[in-house]
Write a structure and sequence with these properties.
Layout lengths: L4 E5 L6 H10 L7 E11 L2 E9 L4 E7 L6 E2 L2 E3 L1 H18 L2 E7 L7 H12 L4 E5 L5 H8 L3 E5 L8 H13 L3
Parallel strand pairs: 1-8, 1-9, 2-7, 7-8
Antiparallel strand pairs: 2-3, 3-4, 4-6, 5-6
Helix pairs in contact: 1-5, 2-3
EC number: 3.6.1.15
Protein name: Nucleoside-triphosphatase THEP1
Keywords: ATP-binding, Hydrolase, Nucleotide-binding
């Protein structure tokens, strides 16, 4: 089976999200690209949490220091309602309308809501290519994703991160078949 799902991995802060964003900038402007990013939020130089940012401009807190939540990842409380309200419908729409689905990232925080794993699996199963990032952690769902024959895992390093956007854009353009 051809690999149509491209997931970046690597150490935190290596530039996975930047590679995804730069790749999107190299794709044909007519493409319908739908999905989301997880963006680190800093105040006074200190990380205070993470926001969900969809490609159509929606924003919501994914996790924040001091947030009351039954789901705590490190110092961050996870807002599972935001996952259900923003990420899940965005990816469901992508399944219907997108030329390319962006999932940045598949990680422990997002997996606090069970619907996230379901919709990500549906995206990976769909005929539409997925570009995203996957956390290096050893979690059951992450391991299942990594074992899929249609998933290519690309480790981002300081040495390859500048060349990757051009390589990924060329691969995705060939997969989608229209420029």
């Amino acid at each position: 089976m051809a690999r149509k799902n491209w997931l970046l991995t690597g150490t935190p802060g290596i530039g996975k999200t930047t590679v995804v964003q730069r790749t999107l900038n190299l794709l044909p402007p007519a493409w319908r690209v739908i999905g989301f990013f997880t963006e680190e939020v800093r105040e006074h130089g200190e990380r205070v949490g993470f926001q969900i940012v969809t490609l159509d401009g929606q924003r919501a807190w994914l996790a924040r220091k001091g947030m009351a939540s039954p789901y705590q990842i490190g110092r961050y409380g996870v807002d599972t309602d935001a996952i259900a309200r923003v990420i899940v419908p965005t990816l469901q729409r992508a399944l219907q309308e997108a030329d390319l689905i962006v999932v940045d990232e598949i990680a422990k925080m997002e997996l606090c809501h069970p619907a996230f794993a379901e919709v990500v699996w549906a995206c990976l199963d769909s005929p539409r290519p997925v570009l995203g990032a996957i956390q290096q952690s050893r979690l059951s769902f992450l391991d299942k994703v990594r074992q899929r024959s249609d998933v290519e895992i690309v480790t981002v390093t300081r040495e390859n991160r500048d060349a990757l956007p051009h390589q990924l854009a060329a691969t995705l353009t060939a997969l989608v078949g229209r420029g």
